[in-house]
């Protein structure tokens, strides 16, 4: 499917180059890595060496000087090949963006070259057990102790903390007791005393694991604070919009992978006199899934463009819509793909059944379907709030 109308020649070239890399690894690589309890280090390193992981980061720090448009192309194409790298959503997209835009020169020098060349990875922690979708309720608290910060709180479902060199933790400053969100962001290195993690037993077959975190008076130097203590919300959204665009890319890629597998199968499998794909009951839902994925990608491209052009407000609405559309399209595409394979859809050999759970992730994280519908109801349509 051509993207020439909305993407530049460079983008198209990037798509095909990443697709070629993805093809060399593919789904089998990912399932082997997961079965053996490993991480996709080889793919991560090769993608980094080719400049794909840091494509959005500033050139002066070893990045490609591009934007979220390019980074989302990389993730989508790896996903379409069956080997998405989930940590791209957090490491270069959220953390890299926030540090590049708001970090001090020292933070930029310490982190950006490593995030760009893949030698450093950063996780991102905002979700809390007692706050969930209501991030205004987060209670992870930072208080001053001399020049240091002491950070205390709990986080849940944080991806990749075991492999990340540090986690960018969203807290709030202690004097912000007005009930208004006044987030501040801290870089917490993995082995900092008092920073504990416990793996959550998830029904997901993915190399990236989720963790519950306990921060118990974690002492951090003053330079652990990223950006300005009082400009928290702006800084946070600088990272959250790319996260939504990247989740859309993750979902579109997975949906494309599933539809392609189903189409291949439907062209071959014959139980009457034609391949099953000739029956419209099989073909039409696949065509519909294909259309819906294309539409979701268009919205993703719009959101990425707005973000890269510096329109944070416009990007916020578009990124939410893109994430919503992509997650819904992905869930439907995977469901139809599994169904198309009949019994084989549920076998390990064909590898599609595990995507049923994986596809749901994009519907829940980083912000659930309902919270996006709330956002659009209130922000875009001006409807009153029920909560
Ligand atoms: C695989 C995975 C990876 C993740 N990785 C990370 C990560 O790296 N970092 C991180 O910070 N977080 C991460 N998360 C957390 C994720 O962002 C949260 O799960 C998500 O924001 C939803 O929060 P919750 O699970 O507490 O659900 P809840 O907030 O408890 O919501 C439960 C249900 O109620 C609905 N609901 C809640 N409020 C409303 C409302 N006002 N109106 C209508 N419906 C409502 C929700 O839509 C949902 O269906 C991850 C989650 C998963 C599953």
Automatic annotation (TrEMBL):
Q: Which metal ions or organic cofactors does this protein require, according to UniProt? A: FAD
Q: Which residues form the Acyl-CoA dehydrogenase/oxidase C-terminal domain?
A: 232-376
Domain (Acyl-CoA oxidase/dehydrogenase middle) spans 123-217
Tell me the domain of life: Bacteria
Q: Which GO terms describe its molecular function?
A: oxidoreductase activity
What does the UniProt keyword field contain? FAD, Flavoprotein, Oxidoreductase
Domain Acyl-CoA dehydrogenase/oxidase N-terminal stretches: 8-118
EC number assigned by the record: 1.-.-.-
UniProt cross-references to Gene3D superfamilies, sorted A to Z:
Acyl-CoA dehydrogenase/oxidase, N-terminal domain, Butyryl-CoA Dehydrogenase, subunit A, domain 2, Butyryl-CoA Dehydrogenase, subunit A, domain 3
Pfam families per the UniProt record, alphabetical: Acyl-CoA_dh_1 (PF00441), Acyl-CoA_dh_M (PF02770), Acyl-CoA_dh_N (PF02771)
The record's family statement is: Belongs to the acyl-CoA dehydrogenase family.
The protein's name is: Acyl-CoA dehydrogenase family protein
**Origin species:** Streptomyces albidochromogenes
From the broadest rank down, the organism's phylogenetic lineage runs:
Bacteria, Bacillati, Actinomycetota, Actinomycetes, Kitasatosporales
